[in-house]
Write a structure and sequence with these properties.
The protein is globular. The chain starts with a strand and ends with a strand. It has helices spanning about 25-30, 35-45, 95-105, 150-160, 165-170, 170-175, 230, 245-255, and strands spanning about 5, 10-25, 55-65, 70-75, 115, 130, 135-140, 145-150, 180-185, 190, 195, 205-210, 215-220, 265, 275-280, 285-289. Strand 14 and strand 15 form a beta hairpin. A seven-stranded mixed beta sheet has the order 1-2-3-4-5-8-9. The protein has a seven-stranded mixed beta sheet with strand order 10-11-12-13-14-15-16, with helices on one face. Strands 6-7 form a two-stranded antiparallel sheet. The longest helix has 15 residues, at about 245-255. With about 290 residues, the protein is α+β, with helices and mostly antiparallel strands. Helices cover about 25% and strands about 30% of the residues.
Length: about 290
Amino acid sequence: MSLKFIVGDLTIHRIIEQETTFLPALEMLPGLTPELLAQNRAWMKAARALDDEDTLILCFQSYVVKTPHHTILIDSCIGNDKPRPQRAKWNMKTDDTYLRGLAAAGFSVDDIDYVMCTHLHVDHVGWNTRLENGRWVPTFPNARYVFDKAEFDYWNETNAKTEVPPFVDSVLPVVEANRAEIVRNDFAIGDHTRILPTPGHTPGHVAFTFGRRKDDAVFSGDLMHSPLQTHYPELSIKFDVDQAAAAATRRGFLEHYCDTDTLCCTAHFPSPSVGKIRRKGNGFVCETV
């Protein structure tokens, strides 16, 4: 299993926190029928994307990208010491899996220049902060944390009505520590890192494209969760705020990157999680490289 990829002048590392069963496929994907699942069960199981009980297997991971000028972490996973009572595997975790993975890739928390969040869901912001003397402090002390403005505003307004724990413990402390960059879609880091709006899963969800003057790699976040959604882009998950918009965004994204050399780095596909988009019938496939 490869945890390191080189494309153009980028080096990309996968930092895996968990790779595990999540929800039954028929529950996670409301548009999925038992018949369609049956047609796809064999290859999904072979790809380790589905278990024997038809439960989806997802990877929860960050990517660390070394450009010629910066070290950038994309999506900070689940985190430790966070109260997440709805998810037993995430609730009050105390393991060192994530930080060991970071160290194995050759990085300490001090090495990260930017933390970039595709969106602000619980499993993408967890390691933004760590518990220190009873307070949440930025895990990556030298990093600027990049949040899309539409996404930040959406969760800020939501949190003002009803508390959103991941926003309170993993986003607001970063803002209070003056480490946040709340940006619009024209934000870039040098000539290597750009924002690609991909709304639907959340209102301000974005992907990130990397490469000098071309997209050598794209980090798709929660634009798609399972390889089944490349075959059938119309299948949205139950957590998508706007399922129709998510489906349209997904097909447009897959069409755009289809048959190009761009490395598509997914957040949740089972290992190796990374591939190139190719056409398959009326859908697509993310081909392992």
